[in-house]
């Protein structure tokens, strides 16, 4: 399978993901090898009991004084995303976002599904909220088995891997304050351990080429790789102004704890279209290895507002007025389990978000430079410009081209 083919599969996978299994995609390649990030350790459940049980929270900020910075800059790149959380694995992935342990026949919940006849989503271990892993992704996997393997393969090749840049880290088990930036990669390639500059490459159609015109080798994930990072991850393309930053993050018992800005957009690009995931109450927690060569398992949890999911669906070609759009809204009204804004719930208040928990593994790498990322056109807007008819470049079939049906 070519790089572009895998990109199309990844886009299709997330199209199916947000629609809860509404569309078919004949795009599975069984030769792609999986890797297992394992179950996360998000730290002790030390924030006290809620409704009869402990609460899975990040470790608290250490109270020790800061030491001299060992690492002015430390760069990790995340891959091996765990979307498929078989059996009860989902129960241990994520965080107790609503500080409620919702179990039993009469669960205490932050809100109720908009479809009042739907049963509220129950929590995982220690109050973990992860409707994505428990309810949403299994629907996806019924339609496209092993799409998580395809997503991992794309990350392996350096497309859309998450870049985590840590500044001001003292290198100890505890650091009361570090500065963390998150972005996405466009391309990556190998390098040598003694390289001080990235290799000369030409990025054409979001593929890296060497000066002789050959395709640049893919990342080796050995700590010596170079990655080009998405320019749009920074305001006005200014590397000093990241859109996703926590300059008050910390390290507790070797675990980095970062809070994502509310409404942060995480771009999951493809060659012609892509997904923008928008989270509120987002957390990133992962263990920095003692030798500083790896970072993980990294747990990402948060609240994905239903309205943002619907915006993503339209970007992918599921348009208002389509039958698929109506079915999608009905499904989201059934599985929504949390409020987008913490503290706004209450008795009979409808949920307006989906809780999510996923894991990654991070590996040491090198940040080469910024480069423009893949554009993310809105397929519904393109269809309107074409008079309501999709052109041949828009994935509109459900066959071997890994498309989705954008019609009604």
List its salient traits.
alpha+beta; 6 helices; disordered C terminus
How is this structure best described in words?
This protein is an alpha+beta fold and 408 residues long. It has one domain (3-385). 17% of the residues lie in helices and 26% in strands. The protein has helices at 3-19, 131-143, 147-156, 306-315, 323-335, 379-385; strands at residues 71-82, 162-169, 175-189, 202-204, 207-209, 226-230, 245-252, 255-259, 264-268, 275-288, 294-305, 353-364, 366-371. The strands form two sheets. The protein has an eight-stranded antiparallel β-barrel with strand order 1-2-3-7-8-10-11-12, surrounded by four helices. Strands 4-5 form a two-stranded antiparallel sheet. α1 (3-19) crosses α3 (147-156). The longest helix has 17 residues, at 3-19. The protein is globular and about 60 Å long. The two termini are 31 Å apart. Residues 1-51 and 390-408 have low confidence and may be disordered.
Count the beta strands. 13
Oligomerization category of the chains in this entry = single chain
Beta-strand percentage range: 25-35%
Q: Strands of the biggest beta sheet: in what spatial order?
A: 1-2-3-7-8-10-11-12
Number of helices: 6
Q: What string, H for helix and E for strand, traces the elements in order?
A: HEHHEEEEEEEEEEHHEEH
- Report on the biggest sheet: 8 strands, antiparallel, barrel
Radius of gyration computed on alpha carbons: 21 Å
Tally of individual domains: 1
Which blocks of ≥5 consecutive residues have pLDDT under 50? 1-51, 390-408
Helix percentage: 10-25%
Give the CA-based shape: globular
User: Which secondary-structure class do the elements indicate?
Assistant: alpha+beta
> How far apart are the termini?
31 Å
On the 0 to 100 scale, the average pLDDT is: 81
């Amino acid at each position: 399978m070519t790089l572009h083919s895998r990109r199309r599969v990844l886009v299709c996978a997330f199209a199916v993901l947000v629609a809860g299994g509404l569309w078919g995609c004949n795009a599975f390649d069984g030769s792609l090898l999986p890797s297992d990030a394992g179950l996360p350790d998000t730290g002790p459940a030390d924030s006290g009991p809620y409704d009869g049980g402990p609460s899975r929270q990040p470790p608290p900020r250490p109270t020790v004084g800061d030491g001299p910075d060992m690492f002015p800059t430390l760069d990790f790149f995340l891959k091996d995303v765990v979307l498929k959380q078989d059996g009860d694995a989902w129960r241990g992935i994520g965080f107790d976002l609503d500080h409620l342990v919702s179990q039993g026949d009469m669960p205490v919940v932050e809100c109720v599904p908009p479809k009042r006849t739907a049963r509220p989503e129950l929590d995982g271990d220690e109050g973990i909220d992860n409707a994505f892993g428990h309810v949403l992704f299994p629907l996806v996997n019924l339609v496209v088995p092993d799409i998580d393997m395809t997503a991992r393969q794309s990350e392996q090749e350096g497309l859309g891997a998450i870049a985590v840049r840590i500044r001001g880290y003292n290198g100890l088990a505890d650091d009361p304050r570090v500065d963390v930036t998150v972005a996405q990669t466009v391309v990556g390639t190998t390098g040598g351990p003694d390289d001080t500059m990235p290799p000369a490459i030409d990025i054409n159609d979001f593929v890296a080429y060497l000066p002789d015109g050959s395709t640049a080798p893919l990342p080796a994930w050995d700590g010596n790789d170079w990655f080009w990072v998405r320019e749009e991850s920074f305001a006005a393309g200014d590397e000093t102004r990241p859109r996703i930053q926590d300059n008050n993050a910390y390290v507790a018992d070797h675990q980095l704890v970062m809070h994502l800005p509310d409404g942060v957009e995480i771009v999951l690009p493809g060659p012609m279209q892509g997904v923008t995931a928008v989270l509120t109450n987002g957390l990133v927690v992962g263990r920095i290895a003692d030798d500083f060569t790896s970072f993980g398992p990294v747990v990402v949890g948060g609240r994905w507002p239903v309205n943002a999911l619907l915006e993503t669906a339209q970007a992918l070609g599921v348009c208002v007025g389509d039958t698929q759009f109506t079915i999608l809204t009905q499904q989201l009204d059934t599985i929504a389990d949390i409020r987008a804004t913490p503290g706004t719930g209450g008795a009979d208040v409808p949920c307006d978000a989906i809780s999510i928990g996923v894991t990654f593994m991070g590996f040491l790498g090198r940040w080469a430079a910024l480069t423009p990322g893949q554009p993310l056109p809105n397929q519904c807007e393109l269809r309107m410009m074409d008079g309501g008819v999709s052109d041949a470049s828009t994935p509109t079939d459900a066959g071997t081209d890994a498309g989705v049906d954008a019609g009604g």
